Amino acid sequence: MLSAPVLHKLKSGRNLLAFSHGVDSTALFYLLDEAGMKFDLAIVDYNVRAQSKDEVASARDLATKFNKRIYVKSVQLGESNFEHEARAARYDFFAEICRKQGYENLILAHQFDDKFEWFLMQLGRGAGLSELLGMQELEARDNYVIARPLLGVRKCELERFLRERNLKYFTDETNLTDQFKRGFVRAKFSEPFLDEYFSGVKKSFEFLAADALSLTPEISNPAPKIYLVKRGANEIRGVDQAYKRLGLVLSAAQRNECARCLENGADCVLGGKVAVGASVNFILVTPYIKAAMDKKFKESCRRLSIPPINRGFLFVESADLSKFKELL
């Protein structure tokens, strides 16, 4: 079931499995163990269901039984835009663990149904090819790599795997309703469609992935958290990928704002966190930081035509400006 390229990646380096004790992550836990992979666990309790306490307790028992470390975070989120806040909370938690504990790979249990649901949701919002494809088996982030070994597997196969082995897992009842947008898309569209046309959809994704390679923008990473996107037809996709590598997701509104700024040769700050600076040949993407800079540094930036919006971060990080001499 598991992707061979992803398994090859996981054989080296330290691995952290994002765990919920639902069907997908529980099946992935046992599949990784059977494959001889070494990994630890991280789980988030959102405190919205009484069952979540049982899930965390069972996850702790599982970690003890298999001699694994487990990291647990309890969060309280608002009711408005819960899905978005929950996603941000867990990814911030996972990124923090990877950074502090030295994990090089973050393993996620997304499967083919998730990939198709994402495709449909992005299609409904109005998105380009790279956004429609969304999830990839391996995606670089600034301090770690996201690995998705199950993207070629349907959820029903994972359920069958667990039932046949009588392995314990939990069912989040909210996933069975259309309370949230993803649940609505799953119940009304993706599951019925995949039940009829899974093999064709899988082949289409393979063709689309091959087509996407020809649209891949040129991105360089001269230093941590610093990305240079070559200007051209696919530059906004490059900004989107750099944004992801910084651990964030570019919204449709931010993408449109960024495109307008770049078209006019202007810099912009996205979400108050990421600075996108426009130069003649490249777009510079860094975290956004305000900083009081000395005159010598400012003059060096001016001579190299480094966009003003990025200079605060470069100054605070004591970046080697010589790396930009031939690029910008």
TrEMBL record:
Q: What is its main location?
A: cytoplasm
UniProt keywords, alphabetically: ATP-binding, Cytoplasm, Ligase, Nucleotide-binding, tRNA processing
Residue ranges annotated for the tRNA(Ile)-lysidine/2-thiocytidine synthase N-terminal domain, each copy included: 15-187
- Gene Ontology molecular function, alphabetical: ATP binding; tRNA(Ile)-lysidine synthase activity
Q: Spell out the InterPro entries in the cross-references.
A: Rossmann-like_a/b/a_fold, TilS/TtcA_N, tRNA_Ile_lys_synt, tRNA_Ile_lys_synt_N
Record carries keyword Nucleotide-binding: yes
Per its record, the protein catalyses: cytidine(34) in tRNA(Ile2) + L-lysine + ATP = lysidine(34) in tRNA(Ile2) + AMP + diphosphate + H(+)
Gene Ontology CC: one annotated term: cytoplasm
Give the GO biological process terms: tRNA modification
Query: If you read the UniProt record, what top EC class would you report for this enzyme, in one word?
Result: ligase
What PANTHER family does the entry give? TRNA(ILE)-LYSIDINE SYNTHASE-RELATED
Write the protein's name: tRNA(Ile)-lysidine synthase
Q: What is the lineage of its organism?
A: Bacteria, Pseudomonadati, Campylobacterota, Epsilonproteobacteria, Campylobacterales
